[in-house]
Design brief:
There is one protein chain. Helix content is 55%, strand content 6%. By secondary structure, the chain is mainly alpha-helical. It has a three-stranded antiparallel beta sheet. A two-stranded antiparallel sheet has the order 2-3. α2 runs parallel beside α7 and α20 crosses α21. The longest helix is centred in the first third of the chain and has 33 residues. It is globular and about 90 Å long. The relative contact order is 0.08. About 4% of the residues have low confidence.
């Protein structure tokens, strides 16, 4: 009675490829769910793995309007336009209705029961995302108590005030404690902004009048909605902003080229010609390198949504991302040319540019294999090179990836202030940063204004060192 006719198709004797994929899919689902804690949702998935497809929603406007009730249509449209949803909180989740007593656990963000009509056409993508989530959830769940223990131990320390040795303060009051707390919130628990301003829209009570649950809209969702739409208006539909971004970014590229530490002006000029020649060909050396190695920063500052859509048509998320196209293309133009210039400047064997060592597929030409010794050594070299390219782009253009987001972003006001100015922290570092070894660039770095001031203050010594050839590579840069 309840048999799905598609099972007959899947396990037909002549359809081994499809049946093998189905078995593989269910195996990965089961392994992924086993990594997750036991909740109402995970219990359902464990009992019904053959009916589960992870976190794929049919979020087109036409599907929302097919909701049977007016309330369902209105909720769907609001969520479609804003990304704001409601959360049901039960007393059993906390012991009582109090957010301060919420369990200190990693939230599960990818569990959802789906109807047949909501199943994704891209099963591979949804499976990959679900499996990746379960692995990260398991790793972060193991990491969280260790970091909490570090934080707890720190709270028991007493620190002497540097400016007044007669005074001391507890670890709870230290900046280090606050940094660890911010790290846990953002990098482990995934909280983008700090906010306790959740809006309660409904409360439920038992027969004795005791509160047993409530429905809330999270203040962080509202804040993110306002920030995202502000970004859409100020960046997406603002061609002047896109043009200014390219001009300011190009000044940074030229300034770096003049320093000639990672690439020269000549390399940057040549990289520009190669960029326009290569970028239009999907199978070019440039595009193959971008696909193979993480040489470009994730431009997540310009992404509105990362939801998966089952529709091949134009969804709201696709439209919003298309609006950002001028800004994204500008960043690709700036960052990709930096990569090409560095590949032209770098000569692993002392005479041949790395760019020329690679064939049209972005792979090492056979005649240069002897220098690296093995393909594994070459891949390791390229990975280090891609990290270096990312480091140079961060230094010039700022940090755009959510993985590099500052703890400042935990506060909605500072996040708003720095929303379009991700280059400000990097700009301050490149001008006033202290002397340190940069593990991405694999060189010593220091703020150039700081170095210049020191050289000018000690002008006589500087001139003597220049004449005797004792000026350092960093000072020359």
């Amino acid at each position: 009675k309840y048999r799905n006719k598609n099972y007959d198709l899947i396990f037909d004797a002549n359809n081994k490829v499809l049946s093998d994929f189905y078995k593989f899919y269910q195996k990965i689902i089961q392994e992924s769910v086993d990594r997750l804690p036991l909740t109402t949702d995970t219990q359902w998935v464990k009992n019904n793995p053959e009916y589960f497809i992870p976190n794929v929603v049919n979020n087109t406007l036409s599907s929302i309007l097919k909701e049977p009730t007016l309330r369902g249509k209105l909720k769907g449209v609001v969520r479609y336009l804003t990304g704001i949803k409601t959360y049901d909180i039960k007393a059993s989740d906390y012991g009582m209705i109090n957010e301060e007593l919420e369990k200190d656990t990693i939230p599960i963000g990818y569990i959802k029961k789906l109807t047949v009509g909501e199943k994704s056409k891209d099963l591979g993508d949804s499976l990959y995302k679900f499996a990746a989530m379960s692995i990260e959830h398991q790793s972060l769940s193991e990491l969280l108590p260790k970091v909490r223990l570090l934080q707890y131990n720190l709270s028991n320390f007493k620190f002497i005030n540097k400016s007044d040795s007669t005074k001391s303060y507890s670890g709870l009051e230290s900046n280090l404690y606050k940094i660890i707390d911010g790290y846990i919130d953002m990098q482990i628990l995934g909280k983008k902004t700090r906010s306790k301003s959740d809006l309660t829209i409904n409360r439920s009570y038992d027969d004795d009048g005791n509160e047993i649950g409530k429905t809330v809209i999270k203040g962080t969702d509202i804040a993110d909605f306002l920030l995202n739409w502000n970004s859409l208006l100020r960046i997406g539909v603002n061609p002047v902003a896109a043009t200014t971004n390219v001009l300011v970014g190009e000044i940074g590229n030229i300034t770096e080229a003049v320093g000639s530490r990672f690439f020269s002006v000549k390399d940057l000029i040549k990289a520009t010609g190669l960029f326009f020649k290569e970028i239009i060909d999907e199978d070019s050396k440039l595009n193959n390198l971008i696909k193979t190695y993480p040489v470009l920063q994730e431009l997540t500052d310009y992404e509105y949504s990362s939801n998966i859509s089952v529709s091949t048509g134009l969804t709201g998320e696709k439209l919003k991302n298309y609006i950002y196209s001028p800004q994204k293309l500008g960043e690709v133009f700036l960052q990709t040319r930096t990569m090409i210039a560095m590949f032209l400047y770098t000569k692993p064997d002392g005479k041949t540019p790395l760019w020329e060592m690679l064939n049209s597929n972005g792979e090492l030409k056979r005649e240069y294999m002897s220098y690296f010794g093995s393909n594994e050594n070459f891949k390791e070299y390229m990975l280090k090179m891609s990290i270096k390219v990312t480091g140079v782009n961060e230094q010039i253009h700022g940090r755009y990836s959510t993985r590099d987001a500052a703890i400042l972003n935990l506060n909605v006001w500072s996040k708003l202030a720095f929303q379009f100015k991700k280059w400000i922290p990097a700009a301050i570092e490149t001008r006033f940063g202290e002397n340190k070894f940069n593990d991405k660039l694999m060189v010593e770095t220091e703020g150039r204004w700081r170095v210049m001031a020191r050289l000018l203050v000690k002008a006589k010594d500087t001139l003597n060192r220049i004449e005797s050839g004792q000026i350092t590579e960093l000072e020359l840069y």
